[in-house]
Backbone:
């Protein structure tokens, strides 16, 4: 990528933003959210294990950090403009 193109992209994506992870219980409609300093596997899966019951089906985006969770897992594919299912 050229230096000019890289400069044009500066400030996009996660630059200067605060990461927040959240979960919604579809049965109770209760929402839980938490500011996190990292969006790595340990942080995101730790949040899921803290807030979701073992029997819950967890629905996420396709981020690799969610792969290998103990819970049943379904993921929407943002890469093909899929943002919601059901």
Residues:
């Amino acid at each position: 990528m050229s230096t000019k193109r890289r400069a044009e992209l500066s400030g996009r994506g996660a630059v200067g933003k605060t990461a927040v992870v959240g979960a919604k219980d579809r049965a109770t409609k209760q929402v839980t959210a938490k500011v996190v300093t990292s969006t790595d596997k340990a942080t995101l899966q730790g949040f899921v294990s803290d807030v979701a019951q073992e029997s819950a089906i967890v629905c996420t985006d396709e981020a690799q950090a969610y792969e290998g969770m103990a819970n049943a897992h379904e993921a929407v594919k943002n890469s093909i403009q899929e943002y919601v299912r059901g």
